[in-house]
Amino acid sequence: MSSSLLYMIGGLAVLDMLSPTALGVTVYMLLNDTRKIASRLFVYLLTIGSIYFACGLVLMFGLEYVLNFLKDALQSKLLNWIIFLIGLFLLIGSFYVPKQNGKSPVIPASAGILTMFGLGITTALLEMGMAIPYFAAIGLMVTADLAVWEWLPILIGYNVLMLIPPIVLYVLHLLFAGWLQKPLKALRNKLNSSKDSPLSWGMSIIGVVLMLNTLDYL
User: Fold this and answer.
1) Per-residue pLDDT, 102
2) Domain boundaries, position 133
3) Of all residues in the chain, what percent are helix, strand and coil, respectively (each to 5)?
4) How many CA atoms lie within 13 A of 106 on its CB side?
5) Which residue spans traverse the membrane (predicted)?
6) Domain-embedded: residue 202
7) Are 15 and 133 in contact (CB under 8 A)?
8) What is the pTM of this model?
């Protein structure tokens, strides 16, 4: 396993660390609801990480077979045109995705462990479709033909890195609760003011990738 592969995967992990939904929920909890926040935040983040990790395992064990199937399927010109048109549709459709409403995530005041578990599932499912860096990292590991004992620690480390920012925010909140209120509010406003939809970006990126990958076969 080359160091350049680790650098590329590490760079992708850094991109995936900035999850606006997970950060938004964490900031909301730190500013508005400090009641037993440690256990509920732990459940929320653990749920997200577990779903991502499970998805990564499925892809690592199954993606090689999928890639081999696609390699044979791409010999069909009709299928390539279909894939190209799907990519074009996604690219055009990305310009018509509604902007985000800029509202903070709403967490009921009585939110307990079960609620945070459900919120974690919702967050993971919403962001999984736009987790382009994560899928790219898995693709790199599959094409590098790594053994299980090589890619498994990388996959675990990747998922841990994704959860670092919310954990860091929580630790800083414990250490500097009074001082951190203003920066947290500024971060919340920054997240709320972002109107770009992750779905729009995800659709456009996937669309372009599909179109570029089929151009040589049309």
Assistant:
1) 47
2) 3-211
3) 80, 0, 20
4) 4
5) 6-31, 43-66, 78-97, 159-179, 199-215
6) yes
7) yes
8) 0.68
